[in-house]
Amino acid sequence: MAKIRHNNILDTVDSVLSVSKKNGIIHLHAQDDMLTGQHLTLKGRKVLHFGTCGYLGLEHHPALKQGAIEAIQRYGTQFPMSRTYVSNPLYAELEQMIQAMYQAPAVISKNCTLAHLTTIPSLIRQSDLVILDHQVHASVQEAVKKMLSQGVTVEMIRHNNLEMLEDRILKLRSKYERIWYMADGVYSMYGDFAPIKDLIALAEKYEQLYLYVDDAHGMSWAGQHGTGYVMSQMDNRLYRKMVLTANLGKAFGACGGVSLFPNEEWYHKVNNFGGPLTFSVQIEPATLGAAIASAKIHLSDEIYTLQEQLQQKILYFNLLLQTTNLPLVHESNSPIFFIGTGTMDMGNYLVQALLQDGIYVNLATFPAVPAKNIGIRITISLHNTFEDIEQLVERLQANFAKALQATNQTQENIRKAFKMPAPQAQPAAAVAAVAAPAGANELKLQVYTSIGALDADLWNRHLGKRGMFDWDGMQFLEKAFSGNGAPEHDWDFRYYQVQDAQGDPVLMTFFVTALYKEDIFSRVSVSKAVEQERELNPYYLTTTGIIMGSLFTEGNHMYLNRQHPAWKNAFKLLLEELYQEQEKTGAGNIMLRDFDAGDPELDAFMVEQNFVKADMPESCVVTSLGWTTEAEYLAILTKENRRNYSRYIKRYEQYFDVEVRSQLPEEELQHAIRLFGNVKERNLGINNFLFPEKVFREMNKDSRWEFVTLKLKKEFGGTGMPVAVCFCQKNAANVYSFMLTGLDYEYTHTYGAYRRALFQVVQRANELGCEKVNMGISATLEKKRVGARPHPKVAYLQAKDNYVLEMLEATIAIEKD
């Protein structure tokens, strides 16, 4: 099969961030002539700054500024050569001070990302196993990804799940020399901590377990000499089997990454030839000068005064939050706080409202957090006064209440998304009167469990003309995917209709709740790796999903009157019903699929509802029908495809007997099912479960279905059984749908069986006088050769969490399909 178009994660992220950029809450530029850390000027408005990572405010400390100035005066603006040859004189002084702080050998890099890229490949071997915490920083994951191509095995566990970690150790310790668990000390979004003491206890229990911890967000505000949260959990002495990464930026006030080692052997291995460390430029003298000044503060009693002052402000913020019903996701003594909003729509609204009200906070969105766990990230620093914090809580509480009503969000939904306790009664002062969205009360949602409950003419008028899912086609699907006795083959159908006050449909669609493979649209190399695991565990990485349309059909499964002023409210009504269905069924994901690509209005709307856009395989359609001769057919093809017709299709005509059958005898039906199995086994570009036999038996009984078969003639070695079978349906609107194909691959190359079969499908639809042929997804190049036009399609996905998505990205080496 030809390569299909796969989702690019960068495109998905871009579609999410573009909405926030359009709303004016990311990619902003400060407009200040001078910065103090307490305020920013954004879009002409002076706002309180609650988004910094400079928790101790050291970036504005006079000693650091003076250290930077003196370093430039003595050593210039840069020292442009590799450290392999000569290092700037300031490096030696800084390294000595860092080692004095940690009492451990240290390697200094230009930043933490380079520290990971330097250290991880230097220490990890092919005989090692790497286990990533789901929420470990992206810079660690990127460094580990480079090890996949070198044969290193990588796995991922759910966040802070030590039971899952120990299970992996027990199952895999006989296969690997060392097992490295990689985590953050303080997690940058929610401000929660790695269970360092429990991890060390586990490492003592299993000698093969080693720890690699990034404490970038724990630096300076915790620990003896400001060595960080992780060191504070180890009696301020580096554990014998831990590599620790610290940050000379953020709370430290300068810039740079530090890798700390429990022994001289590892230190020398990284320091002597640590890839990027050797080839990257050195830290600028000004930054080294500032870092030395900061290190002097860390080695003095001043650091403890700063730590205590910050803790007082963190405590004060916690106490004020306790007087509200704001959904604080994780309460701790870290300077990072996360208030859940649940939806992107509410997150955008709240950040915008706070900006207007003089407060700047960060929006936390996908992929930094799961799509259903959007929120605002607030940081407390020494730049913030107690009065500033009071203003933050007061304005946050008021604007949060407004945002709830303006975006139709509820405290209950937010807390469900974050698995938090139900809210207490809302203080009266925090409730603001905001009008409901216009038209929301004029719509009526109806839900049906069978197509038989809907009027056939109404359904066919709005949806039935599009593909095989007309009213009769839905009856076929309900029969075929019920009573099969396997969870992947028995689907629950739901039909949704939203009408306005006049009874006119604004939205109509159908969904199935079904078990499916979570790598359904992953790259072939990813699915190949996953299928190896499924040989032992058939339901590995499968989940129950609520899927628009079905896993059998393709095409635009939703009628949506975009001219209606209340179409967005109609869509929101549908989504609310889907969320309730998700709660009842425990479904992990919701997938709305087969929308036309290139629709920025719909993209923005879906992002605001917490869905992420993903590219789907292109849908191929033939509409140039009505020809009566071969010459007329060739005239509708491009010049290149006319050549392809002669080269790949016409030349094989003599080898086949072609039949169109309304029914197949039992022996041929079983043979056709086996041929379909051949295609399914090879085509992992759309990786799903094999359809049950009942589907094919229902086809064989249904007059709307037919089988286009190609049999190799006996003089060319034919056996009398088909070498290609096309499973096709003609609907009530005269649309022909090529739904499935079965192939004997022994004949596809030598005799061009697949290409010839595609042409026979188009020819059959033309004979029937059909208006168009739905040629399905995948094999786009081959289908273009017979006159099909590809239509880019997208899906909108929402998962309860993004663990599987990130696990597939981080643990399987991507190969060219």
Automatic annotation (TrEMBL):
Cofactor(s) needed: pyridoxal 5'-phosphate
Organism listed in the record: Pontibacter mangrovi
This protein's UniProt keywords = Coiled coil, Transferase
Q: Which PANTHER family match?
A: CLASS II AMINOTRANSFERASE/8-AMINO-7-OXONONANOATE SYNTHASE
Q: Which Pfam families match?
A: Acetyltransf_6
In which domain of life is the source organism classified?
Bacteria
InterPro entries (alphabetical): AON_synthase_class-II (IPR050087), BioF2-like_GNAT_dom (IPR038740), PyrdxlP-dep_Trfase (IPR015424), PyrdxlP-dep_Trfase_major (IPR015421), PyrdxlP-dep_Trfase_small (IPR015422)
Q: Where is the BioF2-like acetyltransferase domain?
A: 641-780
Which molecular function GO terms apply here?
transferase activity
Q: State the protein's name.
A: GNAT family N-acetyltransferase
User: Has UniProt tagged this entry with the keyword Transferase?
Assistant: yes
Tell me which stretches of the chain form a coiled coil.
386-413
